[in-house]
Amino acid sequence: MKLQIEVIKLPDKPWEKEGLTENEYEMIIKLLDRKPTETELGIFGVMWSEHCSYKNSKLVLKTLPTTGQCVLQGPGENAGIIDIGDNDAVSFKIESHNHPSAVEPFQGAATGVGGIIRDIFTMGARPIATLNSLRFGNLDNDRVKYLFKGVVSGISSYGNSIGIPTVGGEIFFDDAYEGNPLVNVMSVGILDHKDIATATASGVGNSVMVVGAATGRDGIQGASFASDELTEDSDEDRPAVQVGDPFMEKLLLEASLELIKSDSIIGIQDMGAAGLTSSSAEMASRGNSGIEIDISKVPTREANMTSYEIMLSESQERMLVVPKKGKEETVEKIFSKWGLHAEVVGKVTDDGMLRILNNGNTVAEISAKLLADEAPEYKRESKKPKYVDEINEIKASNIRSNDFNEDLLNLVSSPTIASKKWVYEQYDHMVMTNTVVGPGSDAAVVRIKQKDKALALTTDNNGKYCYLDPQKGGSIAVAEAARNIVCSGGTPMAITDGLNFGNPMDPEIYWQFENCVKGISKACKVLDTPVIGGNVSFYNENPKGAVYPTPIIGMVGLLDSIDERLTMDFKDEGDYIFLVGETKEELGASEYLKVNEGKVDGKVPSIDLDLEKRVQKTVYTANKNKLIKSAHDCSEGGLAVALAESTFKYNIGVKIDVGINTSNKALLFGESQSRIVVSLDKKSVNEFKEIAKANNVSIKKLGITQKNRYEFNNLINLEIKELKMRWETAIEKKLQ
Amino acid sequence: MKAGVVTFPGSNCDYDVYNVLDNIFNFDTDMIWHKDKTLDDYDLIVLPGGFSYGDYLRSGAIARFADIMEPVIDFANNGGIVLGICNGFQILLESNLLPGAMKVNDNLKFVCKNVKLEVINNLTPFTNQYDNNEIIDMPVAHGEGNYYIDEKGLKKLKKNNQIVLRYKDESENPNGSLNNIAGICNIEGNVFGLMPHPERCSEEIIAPNNNDGYRMFASIIDEITNRGDKIAR
Question: CATH number of the domain that B57 lies in?
Fold first, then answer.
């Protein structure tokens, strides 16, 4: 084999620049039976990065349940797909853009939105909704304010322009995320079964085309950058952050969907992390083929780009397409209609090699399977962290409180619980005119035009729970997501997981990772919500340490009829309020403890997944039978906050008069799981009780809805208006 | 009778408007491509919301040079009914079919929420189903909706009754527009641009208890059906 040796001589430890280890470098030499060229080593660097290869997580991820009746496409493609009946399908996935957002919040977040949307339309689905799950440090910190504003305006800028509504998500603030915010974006699309596209290259001699934007020098080695810890020097990595162009992506979206519908392609793949390299290697590998690309044919934005740069650029808004034989012109025609490039840059071969030519000279030649599927898999050392055994028991007497009125006001104005109106009013959450229940609800509900059914969408995770007890925290994240779907009238269908952790080489971090996944796996099995895809983001650390383990669960639920939608808001005065599920003496890991004592400590609330399922079934069935008028799950801030949130929309208050078997603090602010507050007309009460009984679930009457005031036993007595004002203005005040 | 909705590259409310006309009103509606150089026989042309050409340079500034704009301008000058929503309004300003200009929102942020509007002129083809001074509710979603016109221009707008919709008051004004202006028409009354999105409150399912957008489309269809192509003011 003749390989043109590139001008640049490799440095002493060439693997370091590419983020590889010396062992991996030696492994590459052995596998190739020679030393790699600079371009080849760069290709290995990104393909064997955690971001592309999941080398440190694969063995653990394999334990997740990925099959189920509704699964049409599980993990391994650009995004998973589920069946929702009548030949309709839903494709969805969550992805992180943490490191780019930490150094360049606007572009980092914007391209996070762009990247995941591309994954969805690559599957042949029209994206109809976006959600984002964000984590920031303390909002009193100026740098955090800068990151927060930048991320929100990046999401707003990209999402609004491309015209896909941002319908929901959640935001937490905690010191643990300072310097390393988490930006996870979930995109959801719908498609006909017959339009499902795959990212496969096959058929010897078929053309390989690059379509969309031209290739520039931005985002080079972004995947490797994402697979390392952030340091004080990370600002210098800003060139590794890509620059987004939502207008270009809107054109690419329309052109790609038109192309997929035209039935003229074999495969299509988004160029995301590791750009041309990963898209070509993965497409070839899936099709058991090879791909030969002449990079001199790739349209570039800048002159004199080296093969290394072209192969590793992460310029956005590009796709790789393998058309059916003779359909190149159709591709060109459709793309030129939308004003986009479509260039033949190579062909499919049968030798299984990814071969890169530059003006006819071979600059890289590596087995595609070796790159895409045969990266080393590591089972890292795992060790239970010491802090886990040092967790204190939190009793009611450990939390200082002068006045429960003040406690509730403080909780609703803590940024994590406070209204996110300041954020979502910057997002177009209505475009496409499908948003039936928008941001600020338990789950967003979007209709499907011309059909009776609808989708419920949510993202959830409590990082404090996962830090204090990763396994329970993982299970609770899934349980809460499912609860939110049920509170919106849907049946939980499937999840996508965005797994955000610190450095996996640290045994304690690896232990957190393993245990979170164990918890997720358990809950998914019981609640029958398989994992159809997701994303792993390691190395989320700042100089002070790792972020909380934060496996974000994005869940999609199905409403058989849009008329079955349910919201959290109390609708009428004089309705009965019931609590489904049981309140225990559980104040550990609560927002109340954090707000009043500044502590993250204590036992995470217990979770009985079987009970969870029955609680959800009770509410689901009661809603199907049209018995309940509102439903809201109890999460951060406990029952008192859940009730408050239900009063705001229509200014309908509560008069709670309930016997207690816990401390007042646990009753009001404890975060016992598997609890849902419902309101119903008096005449529905008996039938509702029967449903609960049939499901062996305990329910308790809390009181009734009333005009204007929030009254809870003799503990809290506030005007709704005051409560709402504090809740609604808290974040804006912090930013002033 | 037929309506046409223009798709520019970057339009993203085109199908939302199409959906209302075609599915809610059963009104025969075509999608029109920006590269078309002629227009069929239409009774209504809608320039929809979105980010035509990415809103690069200035919103609407590039779209005015699209091939389709020449026949649209002719259509408007011949008395055809033209509705510009959000980005469509911006394009109408850039094309000089309506007077004035659009600035970035005064708080520099994109805003998406429901606002209260006051109907100032119900004698247009777009507002004949409302009462004058009626307060209505409509969503806005824009980053550049801060309408501006010089003093002389404003006087002229007022004199000719061209201010059709105003934000109810300062507190409802989401962008800092002059005189709380939300929508204006040309002197003849056949061309109308507004920042709010009537297509987002034309169906009960997505806008409960709000038919204020529905009534705008109903006005136009009433005009077309009952008054032919004669423009009454």
Answer: 3.40.50.880
Please spell the DSSP secondary structure of A514-546, one letter per residue: HHHHHHHHHHHHHHT--EEEEEEE---EETTEE
Domain membership of residue B139 (yes or no) is yes
pTM for the complete prediction?
A: 0.95
The total number of residues shown for chain A amounts to 736
B139 touches chain A (CB under 8 A): yes
Contact (Cβ atoms closer than 8 angstroms) between residue B188 and residue B211: no
Say if residue A408 is in the same domain as residue A329.
no
In a domain, B56, yes or no: yes
CA dist A120 and A129 (Å) reads 11
8 Å CB contact between B118 and B71: no
Chain B closest CA to A163's CA: distance in Å?
A: 5
**B18, B31, B110: which to substitute to probe chain A, counting the most A Cβ within 10 Å?**
B110
**Rounded Cα gap, residues A349 and A360, in angstroms:** 16
List, for residues A315-369, the tens digit of each pLDDT value. 888 999 999 999 999 999 999 999 998 999 999 999 999 999 998 899 999 999 9
**A403 shares a domain with A344:** no
Where is pLDDT greater, at A562 or B229? Answer: A562
Indicate which CATH number applies to the domain containing A606: 3.90.650.10
Q: Is residue A360 part of a domain?
A: yes
* Facing residue for A562 by CB, picked from B143, B200, B205: B205
Interface touch B206/A436, C-beta < 8 Å: yes
User: Which candidate, A320, A297, A562, A603, places its Cα nearest to that of A452?
Assistant: A562
Per CB-CB distance under 8 Å, the chain B contacts of A447 are 205-206
Q: Are residues A224 and A346 in the same domain?
A: yes
Look up the domain containing A210 and give its range: 1-6+22-47+198-375
Say if A732 is an interface residue toward chain B (CB within 8 Å).
no
Q: What is the ipTM of this complex?
A: 0.96
The two structure tokens encoding residue A92: 């969805």
Tokens of A191: 């498609």
pLDDT tens column, B64-93: 999 999 999 999 999 999 999 999 999 999
Q: Quick one: tokens of A195? A: 């339009």
Residue A3 has pLDDT above 60, yes or no: no
Residue of B13, B86, B185, B201 marked catalytic = B86
Count of domains for chain B: 1
Q: Are residues A609 and A581 in the same domain?
A: yes
d(CA A501, CA A385): 14
Which residue has tokens 């609640």? A527
Q: Does residue A296 sit in the same domain as residue A365?
A: yes
The structural domain count of chain A equals 2
For residue B86, indicate whether it is catalytic. yes
Asked if A428's CB is within 8 angstroms of B112's CB, the reply is yes
Report CB contact under 8 Å: B51, A160.
Answer: yes
Residue B233 lies in a domain: no
Q: Is residue B120 assigned to a domain?
A: yes
Q: Which domain holds residue B61?
A: 3-227
Q: How far is B180 from chain A (nearest CA, A)?
A: 20
Same domain membership, residue A254 and residue A326:
yes
Q: Which two tokens stand for residue A128?
A: 């109809």
Verify whether the Cβ–Cβ distance A430 to B143 is below 8 Å: no
Mean pLDDT, chain A, whole residue set: 94
CB A211 within 8 A of CB A297: no
Distance CA A319, CA A253 (A): 10
User: Is there a single domain that holds both residue A279 and residue A401?
Assistant: no
Per the CB < 8 A criterion, the answer to whether A465 and A589 are in contact is yes
CA-to-CA distance for A384 and A392, rounded, in angstroms? 17
Chain B residues whose CB is inside 8 A of the A430 CB are 112, 139, 141, 197, 200, 206
Chain B residues 50-69 within an 8 A CB cutoff of chain A: 50-51, 53-56
In a domain? residue A73? no
All residues of chain A having their beta carbon less than 8 Å from the beta carbon of residue B200 are 430, 433
